[in-house]
Amino acid sequence: MAMRELRYFGDPVLKSPTDPVTTFGASTRALVEDLLDTVAAPGRAGLAAPQIGVGVRAFSYDVAGERGYVLNPEIVETSEEREEIMEGCLSVPELSFPTERAVRATVKGVDLRNEPVTVSGSGLLAQCLQHEVDHLDGLLYLDRLTPQRRKQALRAARSTDWFWSR
């Protein structure tokens, strides 16, 4: 379909919890195609619907040859083991900060036929699953930073050319 324009930190859609997908027709199919097309650009691992201005529970992913989407995803399992990893976000470009994430994660949701889908992964895929579900809950990775790092991140974001409120 189309590569969609991204929304950036400061846009209210990124801080609003999303609504569940309730219809599975042409408009939802078009949204999924747009999510898949938009995440396919080099350097991208995941993309949540709010990042393209749509407030529904949907995301796409493209990590190490695993590519797909999940509608109405919920994290159903994470490992107790955590690690601090450098994390960035398409909606907070040019910045990355150490963020604590579970090493393994599992998401359950549905596909375009409203059939159950389960995606599990470790490493980058686990990070991506957690990151994208956070977006659907109205959270950015910046919200998970330590207070000192969050202050540093917000200062850095405000000094960028893309920050919307400048």
UniProtKB/TrEMBL annotation:
Top enzyme category: hydrolase
EC number: 3.5.1.88
A UniProt-annotated Pfam family: Pep_deformylase
Keyword Hydrolase included in the entry's annotation: yes
Reactions mediated catalytically: N-terminal N-formyl-L-methionyl-[peptide] + H2O = N-terminal L-methionyl-[peptide] + formate
A molecular function GO annotation: peptide deformylase activity
Active site, per annotation: 132
Cofactor requirement: Fe(2+)
UniProt entry keywords in alphabetical sequence: Hydrolase, Iron, Metal-binding, Protein biosynthesis
GO biological process: translation
InterPro entries linked: Peptide_deformylase, Peptide_deformylase_sf
Cofactor: binding details: Binds 1 Fe(2+) ion.
Chain residues that bind Fe cation: 89, 131, 135
PANTHER family for the chain: PEPTIDE DEFORMYLASE, PEPTIDE DEFORMYLASE, MITOCHONDRIAL
Similarity comment text for this entry: Belongs to the polypeptide deformylase family.
Its job: Removes the formyl group from the N-terminal Met of newly synthesized proteins. Requires at least a dipeptide for an efficient rate of reaction. N-terminal L-methionine is a prerequisite for activity but the enzyme has broad specificity at other positions.
HAMAP family: Pep_deformylase
Protein name stated in the entry: Peptide deformylase
Provenance organism: Saccharomonospora piscinae
